[in-house]
Write a structure and sequence with these properties.
This protein is α/β, with parallel strands linked by helices. It has nine helices and eleven strands. It starts with 8 loop residues before the first strand and ends in a 5-residue tail after the last helix. It binds ligand BV8 and zinc ion (ZN).
Length: about 230
């Protein structure tokens, strides 16, 4: 698969591209965290029931991401962005900052970001790298005093800026998807939109994703090995 100068490439990444950096994927760890299913912790219901548990989960995720280094997959995508400029659009389901730390300048985190928090009322995200592991000292908003939550899109919540995603999807000539099981919508449905438009759709990962039938090409292998070959 080669990209031509006039191509517009839409890239969607998932937890698999951070796997080589040591960050747990959702399915790889059997979808479990300290015995909790991620779907049971990354939800508004879990937040209402036990904000301390949710903050412990995201504090651990912040700690793991701070200790991780970007890998060759992140670097290859940052390089591709440099070569293609605004013909390159990177949308990630990941909440870690490894794409940015590898040099990617324009990254759309459709499911939020680990290193930002927001007041449940004021809703304006702000940079936050703190760990909140003491249930008695959960963060509250300096402006209005209400609870501060992770700036993360939980199950049942609407992904961020879907309009810009679908606008980019409409004008792409190639969709490249890497490191995602295709189990969560609407992200897993992007390939169906691209397939209906008849553009080239490529998947990169060690195993076929659940939405494999919608891809025109499947390059089986770790993203760290396959993505650098695209340059
Ligand atoms: C929405 C942030 C409405 C959190 C995430 C019933 C009840 C409630 C909701 C639903 C329901 N049924 C369906 C839904 C909708 C739901 C959904 O799809 N649920 C699933 C479980 C069925 N979706 C939602 O709730 C979404 N919102 O629907 O709102 C709406 C929608 C549109 C318009 C209007 C209204 C919001 C979902 C977002 C949830 N938040 N992340 C956090 O990080 O803590 S989701 C999270 O899981 C990821 O972000 C990702 O999206 C998803 C799956 O993770 P993957 O990245 O794919 O990782 P996974 O572990 O699954 O797979 C790893 C892959 O990597 C594997 O394929 C593996 O082979 C590969 N791999 C491994 N090693 C490597 C590798 N690849 C390359 N190289 C390697 N070395
Ligand atoms: Zn507030």
């Amino acid at each position: 698969m080669r990209f031509e100068a006039e191509d517009r490439v839409f890239v969607l990444t998932g937890a698999g591209v951070s796997a080589a950096s040591g960050l747990a994927t959702f399915r790889g760890s059997g979808g479990l965290w300290n015995g909790h299913r991620v779907e049971d912790v990354a939800t508004p219901e879990a937040w209402e029931a036990d904000p301390g548990l949710v903050w412990r989960f995201y504090s651990m995720r912040r700690r793991d991401a701070l200790a991780a280094q970007p890998n060759a997959a992140h670097v290859a995508l940052a390089e591709l962005e440099k070569q293609m400029g605004d013909r390159f659009y990177l949308c990630t389901q990941n909440v870690d900052d490894l794409h940015e730390r590898a040099g990617s300048e324009r990254v759309h985190h459709m499911h939020g970001t680990l290193f930002e928090s927001r007041c449940v009322w004021c809703e304006k995200p702000f940079a936050d790298r703190a760990f909140y592991e003491d249930g008695a000292a959960l963060p509250v908003c300096a402006e209005c005093g209400r609870a501060v939550r992770p700036h993360i899109v939980w199950f049942g919540e609407v992904p961020l800026d879907l309009n810009s995603i679908f606008r980019e999807l409409e004008r792409a000539t190639v969709l490249l998807v890497a490191g995602t099981s295709g189990s969560v919508y609407p992200a897993a449905g992007f390939v169906d939109v691209a397939h209906r438009r008849g553009i080239e759709t490529i998947y990169v990962g060690p195993e076929e994703p659940l939405n494999a039938r919608a891809f025109s090409e499947i390059l089986l292998g770790p993203a760290t090995e396959v993505l650098p070959t695209l340059l």
